[in-house]
Amino acid sequence: MAAGLVLLLGLAAAAATEPVGAPSPAAAPGVPALTTAAVDARTAADAEFNRLFAAGQFEAAVEQAHKVVEITGQASPPRPDELQAALMNLALAERRAGDFLAAEASYLRVIELLETAGRLTSPRLARAHAGLALTYYDARRYDLAATSFERAIALNRRAEGLFNEAQLPLLDRQANVLTELGRAEEAHLARRYALRLTERRHGERSLPYAQQLESLARWYTRVGAYDASRAALRRAIDTVVSLQGPESTELVGPLTAAAENARRWITDPQLREAAADAERSEMFHDVTMPTPPSLALSAIAAEGQKALERAVAIVDAHPDASPEMVAGVQAQLGDWHQARQQPDKALPYYRKAWQVAGKAPDAAAMRRKLFDAPVLLHYIVPGEWDRYARRPADEVEFRSLEVELTVTAQGSVTDARAAPDLDKNLAEQVLRAAATARYRPRMVDGEPLATVGVRFLQPWYVLREKDASAQGGG
Length: 474
Hints:
Elements (H helix, E strand, L loop, with lengths): L10 H6 L19 H19 L3 H15 L7 H17 L3 H17 L6 H16 L3 H19 L7 H13 L3 H19 L4 H16 L3 H19 L7 H15 L7 H10 L13 H20 L6 H17 L3 H15 L5 H9 L3 E4 L17 E12 L5 E6 L5 H12 L2 E3 L1 E3 L2 E3 L1 E13 L1 H6 L4
Antiparallel strand pairs: 1-4, 2-3, 2-7, 5-6
Helix pairs in contact: 2-3, 3-4, 4-5, 4-6, 5-6, 6-7, 7-8, 8-9, 9-10, 10-11, 10-12, 11-12, 12-14, 12-15, 14-15, 15-16
C-alpha cells in the first residue's frame, strides 16, 4: 500500500470524510508494473496528498490527487484498482474544496469504470455512489442526492448485508435530503430503519439505541412532530439513566435535544392550527413510544428550560467534561433565549460559550464552529413551498430560492433582498419568511457583531414553464 494513505474499514468513513487506501504497487499477473521511479513518484505524491488533506488544504490536495491519477494511469494498461482508488481520493478532495462539478465528474468516472468491469457488487461501487450522493447533498442538489443515496444504500446492503452499521450515516443523510424535498413519510421510513438496525445489533437497552432514539427525536422536531420527539427523548433519557445513572454525560445529548424540541414547539405558529397539528401527530405516531399527554405552552417552556439546566448541572459536575461539550451547552442556553427574542438574556451564555471554547485543544476551530457565522435558529416556513411536491417529476422543478440579508448583533434580520430574477410572488413569500428568522449572531473577540451578505435559502417546488402557463402561474 502506498505510504501515508488511510485504509478505510467502513463505507461511512470512506463516503464522508477520509481518503481511500490504494492497493499494493506490486504488479498483478499480466499487468505491467510501474517503473521504480514511477512507484517512488506516486508514493511521494500520495504522502503529500495525505498531508495536505489532513491539514484541510483541499485545493492543494486536489492538485496532488491529479498527479497521483496521472502517474497511476501511466501503466499500460492502467491498473484498475489503483486508478479507481486515486480517482476516489481526487473526487473527495474536490468535494471538500467545494468544486462540486469536478467531484461529480470524478465519482461518475469511478462508477463507469466499475460498471464497465462488471463489478456491480463491489463495495467500492457503493462508496462511489455514496460519495456522489454526498457531493449532491453538499451542493444542495437534493433531488439528485435522493436518487444517489437510494442507490448507495441498496449497493451497500447487497455487499455488506441488510443490517450493517456502515449504512447509518447514509440513512441519516438520506432522511435529511428527503425532508428537504418535503417527502417526510419516506424520510421517516429511513429513520425508523436506522432505529431497527441499531436495535438488532445492540438491543433496546443500550447506549447506541438511546443515541439513535435521540437522532430520530431531533428529526421529529425538525418536521414539527413535537409530541413524538418528546416521547422518543423520554425513552432515550430513561435508557441512559438505567445504564449509567442520572449524572452521566451521555444525558447531555438527549437533554439538549429535549430543550431544542421545546424551543421550536413554543415558537411554532402552526400549533394554532389544530388540523395541521393533528395530521403531524397521526403521521408520526409510534405505538412503541406512547405519546405523553399534550401540555400547555407554558409547561413545555418550563420543561425545555429545565432540561437545559440539568445538562448544565451535569457538565458542571464533571470537571473532565470536554470544552466542546460545555461550550455547546452554554451556546444552546443562549439559543433558548435568542429564539424567544431575548438577546440580552442570551448574550451572557454566548460569551461564556466563547470563553470555554477558548480552552479546547483547537480553540480557533471550536470558536469558528460556534460563532464564525450566524446560525439560523428559527423562522416561519412558508406554507406554499411544497404545494407541488407530489406532482410528477416532469411537471415540477425543485429550487433553492435565495435571499441575501444582514443579521444584526441581536440576531434579527434587516436589509433582506431577493434575487432580481425571482418571480415577484415567490420573492414576497420568501422575504416574509426571512423577516421572521432569528439567528445566533456571529461573534468576534467574545462580542456579537452584525453580518452582511448572509444567504437565506428556502426550498421550493415550482411548476415547469409549460404547466405554469397552462394554470395561469404557480
